[in-house]
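Sequence and structure are no longer studied apart. As an example, we show below a sequence and the tokens encoding its fold:
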Amino acid sequence: MLITSVSGQAIAEFALAVTLLMIFIFAAIDFGRALNDLQVMADLTRQGSDLASRGTPLGGNTGAVAAVVSGESSLDLVNKGNVIITAVTNTNNVYKISGQDSSTTDGLTKLVTTSKLGTGVGTNVSATLPAAAQSLLQNGQTLFITEVFYGFTALTPIGTITNSAVNMPTTLYDSAYF
């Protein structure tokens, strides 16, 4: 008669290996989702800036902001995002906000954010542009900037736990300049 015994060490090693494997799989799922969302946001920002630079009004039901929010994407911008399109005009190397609209002004979204360029429209409202964007904008020209903010939540339990350890952002951000 052949008697086999299972060692407790094998069970402990199996449990440790499965736990580590699950952590890596769940982390890959959440980071992959975040990267996918950032890629979709990059496409949406380019579309919004392109629409605005071609003469589409910034706001309103048929404006560039509404087009970006209602565009076909995997993101739920109505409930978890915000789109801000800003027109910045260079007047003798002074950058002024000449137009701005946001999806929050239409009551379309629950994520409240402010533009990283500045808020408000008028001759006394200066815009904060990165150096790379300043080099694009010649005197008398207008630059259209689309910013997309998106509230990211982890899908897996490990993503929720590692969110505090890795300090993964809860709001994703992307912008495009046209």
Q: What stands out?
A: The CA atoms of residues 70 and 132 lie 30 Å apart. The chain is about 40% helix and 20% strand.
